[in-house]
Structure formats: C-alpha cells, structure tokens
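Q: Can I borrow your eye for a moment on a structure tokenisation matter? Would you mind producing a protein record, from residues through to fold? Write it directly below this note and I will take it from there.
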Amino acid sequence: MDEEVERLFLAHNKKVYRYIYWLVKNKETAEDLTQDTFYKAFRNLHKFQGQSSESTWLLKIARNVTYDHFRRKGLISFLKWDSKNDVDRSSLSPESSILRDEELAKLYEAFDHLKKDYRDVLILRKVNECSIKETAYILGWTEAKVKAKAARAFEALKQEYNRKDGFVNEPTK
C-alpha cells in the first residue's frame, strides 16, 4: 500500500497542485490543500473503482477539497491573485519582465472577472489539459455542456481581456 501511495503522489502531485493554485492563487494555501487532497485520496483509495483515470479522480477530490476550504473560510469568490507568484525572471530582460508582468496581471484580472463555471472549465481544459470527458466527470457535467461552456468561457475571457484596453466594442477574431 505504501508503494502505491508514493507512486500516486509522485505521478500526480504537480497536476493537483497546479489546479488548486489556479483556484486559490496562493502558494501556501495551494500546498496545504494539495496535501489535504492526497490525504483524502489515500484514505479512500480502496473506493477507487477505475471508472476514470487516477488523475481525473484526484482532480475531482481536489475540487471538492478546495471548495470545502472556500465554504469554511466564507469565501464566495476566488481570492485575489497573490503578487508573489512563482515566476522565473532570470532569463528575462528588465523590460521584458515588466511587460510580461503587465500582460499576466491583465490576464489574471480578466480571468478573475469570469463566472465561476467559466473559470473552472478553463482551468481544467487549458491549465491542467484535461480531456472533455475528464472535465465533464470532475465538474459533474455532460460533455456537451463542457464544450459549450468552454467556448463561451474563451469568448468571455477574450472580451474581458480586450475590455481592459478599451476595445470592448471591437469584434474579436
């Protein structure tokens, strides 16, 4: 059992952490919730029936653990982005670093203005690269709903991002 637990953790901890980090936007909280996710998964490993991949099963647990955290803390909306993001700036010039920070800040701000469903589907599909089937399982949606929400979420993100530059009425291509 210990070998199975270690294998599961080593195979999936980065993906679970990345998913949670995008939700909570705080390194320490993401680390704590990742640990909670694996603790809960290990306690319930005997219940895993293989109806989905291990990764999909763990991400569903991570989602539930994270939303339980939000409920316990009384947080209805997502936390604001932590300005101390883990970014390797050593390879960037000062000008490039500033431009990158501005673009990222604009993207994160646009992302934070999206509806919760849109944020969820974008994180799973694009950040964690989950399939439509995996995303549907994690969110408890149909595959058709995932496709529709993802398309609407991308459009909403583009509009929100462009709105920050005053291009709200211009058509997006």
User: Anything to note?
Assistant: The chain has two domains: 1-86, 93-167. The first helix runs from residue 2 to 24. The domain at 93-167 is CATH 1.10.10.10 (Arc Repressor Mutant, subunit A).
